[in-house]
Design brief:
With 295 residues, the chain is an alpha/beta fold. The protein is 49% helix and 17% strand. The chain contains 13 helices and 10 strands. Strands 2-1-9-10 form a 4-stranded parallel beta sheet, sandwiched between helices. The two termini are 22 Å apart.
Length: 295
């Protein structure tokens, strides 16, 4: 039996996340306090008792989701056979697999959040979910739409998120509806993640990733950019740098893991988004989500 642990990305956050872990597990409490120190502000206060608006700030959201996921893995003492994470979740996966220390992972996540925020402010963009069309149809619509608009998140069959300039995304949504999409919905996000508009953030983050001490992970990590299993630290770094402007190939990751013999998935961290997406790829496989010690 092969057990994969998977980690959610931005958007999974919720007020109160991780509070029970902090209160029930001394080792995890120390991890949270270490995060407060590294970040230079008490992220735990915002996670446990902040407002949804506080948690929506990219500089808070990304470290918060990462911290909750890693803390959950630590509390459970997980020993995965394989790992993967959706966008930001790839950093959680790298720490849990032993490829990156918690401290280095958190510092990179914080830098990533700041760089993405700056890129969003420099060139405004947006994202939209297209439901009910094939990946190929959505790719063709993006290709024929004027301006910057690309496939950004291959979430599950029949659900693809596009990303790019506001006008181009809206035009692609209109075309998708004409082509018979069940829904084409502009998302309430801060910018055009996983598109060429994130190039300034990719450049800024690439130096920090290149300098960070990566190790050979204890198990393969299936990475967003190519949906392939990796254990070579240098290749993992290259893929992580490419991730900001490349699509998240989640559908392909799940299919590849299934083909490689994974027969159980556990989502660690806030929410149940990945559990739902995995079930849409395969109704047969065992899937669960854990965001608290009780659940």
């Amino acid at each position: 039996m092969k057990h994969a642990y998977v980690f959610p990305g931005q958007g999974a956050q919720a007020v109160g996340m991780g509070k029970d872990l902090y209160e029930q597990n001394a080792e995890v409490k120390a991890l949270f306090e270490q995060a407060n120190e590294i970040l230079g502000f008490r992220i735990t206060d915002l996670m446990f008792a902040g407002t949804p608006e506080d948690l929506k700030q990219t500089k808070v959201t990304q470290p918060a989701v990462f911290l909750h996921s890693v803390a959950m893995a630590k509390a459970l003492g997980v020993k995965p056979d394989a790992v993967a994470g959706h966008s930001l979740g790839e950093f959680s996966a790298l720490v849990v697999s032993g490829a990156l220390s918690f401290e280095d992972g958190l510092r990179l996540v914080s830098k990533r959040a700041m760089a993405m925020q700056a890129a969003c402010e420099a060139v405004p963009g947006t994202m939209a979910a297209i439901l009910g069309l094939s990946d190929e149809q959505v790719e063709a619509i993006c290709a024929e739409t004027e301006g910057v608009v690309v496939a950004a998140n291959y979430n599950c069959p029949g659900q693809l998120v596009i990303s790019g300039e506001q006008a181009a995304v809206e035009a692609a949504c209109a075309k998708a509806k004409e082509a018979g999409a069940r829904r084409a919905l502009v998302l309430p996000v801060g910018g055009a993640f996983h598109s060429p508009l994130m190039e300034p953030a990719r450049e800024e983050l690439s130096k920090a990733i290149a300098e960070a001490p990566f190790r050979t992970p204890d198990c393969p990590i299936y990475q967003n950019v190519d949906a392939e299993p990796h254990t070579d630290p240098e290749q993992i770094k290259r893929n992580l740098i490419a991730q900001l402007t490349a699509p998240v190939r989640w559908t392909q990751i799940v299919r590849r893991m299934l083909a490689d013999g994974v027969d159980a998935f556990t989502e660690l961290g806030p929410g149940t988004v990945l559990q739902g997406l995995i079930r849409k790829v395969s109704t047969e496989v065992a899937v669960e989500s854990k965001s608290t010690l009780e659940a």
